[in-house]
Design goal:
This protein is of the alpha/beta class. The protein has 16 helices and 18 strands. Bound molecules: alpha-D-glucopyranose and calcium ion. One of its GO terms (molecular function) is alpha-amylase activity.
Length: 580
């Protein structure tokens, strides 16, 4: 079995992967039926987005029972089968650990909200209202963009006073919700139905560790850890600092985060030395990363950053950020490699790299040209992702070149992030609707969540029922796994070949990374080196022919064009081996 540094992860969004019983919702049986496809693709580790019992306010990222399977997805017996069948094919399975918050329907929260002296009260973060005060003085933080904060709300009736501070939720509006029963506010950095767990409470921490052991004892191979840098909160709960109102990165890297992660390692992970751990590093800068993943820290193995992710703040739906230029993107990769270190010393850490996941639009639509060069740009992204330094994650559907899905109306979206942003921005100001919809069509998370396109059968072969929980992208007729399976020149077969070859290349697993042309506007050229072994990658991230400003010697071993020319053709990517 490959170690975490040699592995390639494949992310499954279970709701959209494969539906076995015709209800239009993907499920565990569906995944089992596709395991041969995944083994044959050549990935090593499957990461399942949450499969636990949940009311699905945020599609499973709001868990109401950490040790039960979501009934829509199947039973515990089916999960056990999935695990056995995954292992039987030589693959590993990791689960999503969502422990910054639970669902408000979790038994702990149901208890916690009952009374101030309930034994579960301190499992969550409760604070008294702050006293009402004249508005101008209270609204201290100024929004950084041109949009006014959604007010601290809660003003008015019933002794609600004001929220304890001016923190904002990821999914629009204040991060505090007043609860009548006990007359206090609880913290929710995400949706109201996702109350934050109180990691200050040692009993809560032990419950989480016990739950982690429950899954690891079943044979699960590790965890992807949801917003893990958020676990520790500044117990003074200060307002946002001047000029940084609504800056959600402030919630990361709290005062006790490393103490908690080291405790988790001691109590759980150290006893399962083969367990894989990937932290979702929202708010962690390259300079801070080794505090989480430095090998001698005994915290996590890998982290993935957000430096090239689509920004998530609500006003982005009106004022979308421009896409990264190639020099910016290259600088992000170079910066992370430098910050993590490449000398092999014990304080260095490791990263998990991605171009797409369930929180971003489709990578092909962001970085490629899905209209004119769908094959070339999808395979270029494959080639770059799989030759960078770090453990790559392939997001489901990217291996067949799935694209953003055209959505025309707000009610075609499912995601709570889009819906809440719409309610906050467009309901009070209808003329923003066209700008909002245009932006959502570019950046919304639902683009990555449409059902997997298995074939050109109705509903893309994802289900044999009449409906799907989210629209199928109409381009499934052209873009689907079945058609690509037998076409030797498909995106799918390019991934298969590259993944198979990558397994035999220690230089790609552990070699250093050096950007050869950091300032070039359209070429991404870099070298990977391990001892005498050197690979050069050149990729033309543009729709035009580009002359190569460096002389390439050595043997061409991989490329995405049948015939090469002196120039690099649109979205052409090549790998050369330099002979020592
Ligand atoms: C993470 C997940 C995202 C979810 C959020 C709250 O960022 O990847 O999908 O909405 O955490 O759990
Ligand atoms: Ca189903």
């Amino acid at each position: 079995m490959p170690t975490y540094k040699q592995s390639v992860i494949y992310q499954i969004y279970p709701r959209s992967f494969a539906d076995s019983n015709g209800d239009g919702i993907g499920d565990l049986q569906g995944i089992i039926q596709k395991l041969d496809y995944l083994a044959n693709l050549g990935v090593d580790v499957l990461w399942l987005s949450p499969i636990f019992q949940s009311p699905n306010a945020d599609n499973g990222y709001d868990i109401s029972d950490y040790e039960a399977i979501m009934p829509e997805f199947g039973t515990m017996a089916e999960f056990d089968d999935l695990l056995t069948e995954t292992h039987r094919r030589g693959l590993k399975l990791i689960l999503d650990l969502v422990v910054n918050h639970s669902s408000d329907e979790h038994r702990w929260f149901q208890e916690s909200r009952k009374s101030k002296d309930n034994p579960y009260r301190d499992y969550y973060i409760w604070r008294k209202p702050s006293p009402p005060a004249p508005l101008p003085e209270r609204e201290r933080g100024e929004p950084s963009g041109s949009f006014a904060p959604l007010s601290r709300s809660g003003r008015g009736a019933g002794g609600e006073g004001n929220p304890p501070n001016n923190w904002q939720s990821f999914f629009s509006g204040p991060a505090w919700k007043f609860d009548e029963t006990t007359g206090e506010y609880y913290l929710h950095l995400f949706a109201e139905k996702q109350p934050d767990l109180n990691w200050e409470n040692p009993r809560l921490r032990q419950e989480i560790y016990r739950m982690m052991r429950f899954w690891l004892d079943k044979g699960v191979d590790g965890f992807r850890m949801d917003v893990i840098p958020f676990l520790s909160k500044d117990q003074d709960f200060p307002d946002y600092p001047e000029g940084r109102f609504g800056d959600l990165t402030i919630h990361a890297n709290g005062p006790r985060i490393h103490e908690f992660l080291q405790e988790m390692h001691r109590e759980v992970l150290a006893h399962y030395p083969d367990a894989i751990t990937v932290g979702e590093g929202f708010g962690v800068s390259a300079a801070q990363a080794n505090l989480y993943v430095g090998q001698n820290r005994r915290e996590l193995q890998m982290i993935y950053h957000f430096d090239h992710a689509v920004p998530r703040e609500e006003q982005r739906f009106i004022e979308p950020a421009p896409e990264f230029t190639l020099p910016e993107l290259k600088a992000i990769f170079a910066n992370w490699n430098n910050a993590l270190g490449q000398t092999g010393s014990p304080d260095e850490g490791w990263q998990n790299i991605y171009f797409g996941n369930h929180d971003n639009p489709r990578s092909l639509s962001r970085f490629g040209d899905p209209v004119r060069f769908p094959y070339e740009s999808a395979t270029l992204l494959a080639l770059v992702l799989l030759t960078q330094r770090g453990t790559p994650s392939i997001y489901q559907g990217d291996e067949i070149g799935m694209t953003n899905c055209p959505f025309d109306r707000i009610d075609e979206y499912d995601d709570i992030q889009v819906r809440n942003a719409w309610n906050a921005l467009v309901l009070p100001n209808q003329q923003l609707a066209p700008a909002f919809l245009a932006s959502a069509n570019r950046i919304a998370r639902d683009h990555a969540r449409t059902p997997m396109q298995w074939s050109n059968a109705p509903n893309a072969g994802f289900t044999n029922g009449p409906r799907t929980w989210l629209n199928v992208n109409p381009n499934y007729v052209q873009i689907n796994a079945q058609q690509q399976d037998t076409d030797p020149d498909s995106v799918l077969n390019f991934y298969r070949k590259l993944l198979r070859w990558r397994k035999q290349q220690p230089v790609l697993h552990e070699g250093t990374y050096r950007d050869l042309l950091p300032n070039h506007p359209t070429l991404w050229a870099y070298e990977r080196q391990l001892d005498n072994e050197r690979l050069t990658v050149v990729a033309n991230v543009s729709a035009m022919d580009v002359a190569l400003p460096i002389k390439l010697t050595g043997e061409l071993i991989f490329g995405n064009y049948p015939k090469i020319t002196a120039d690099l053709q649109p979205f052409e990517a090549r790998i050369y081996r330099l002979n020592p």
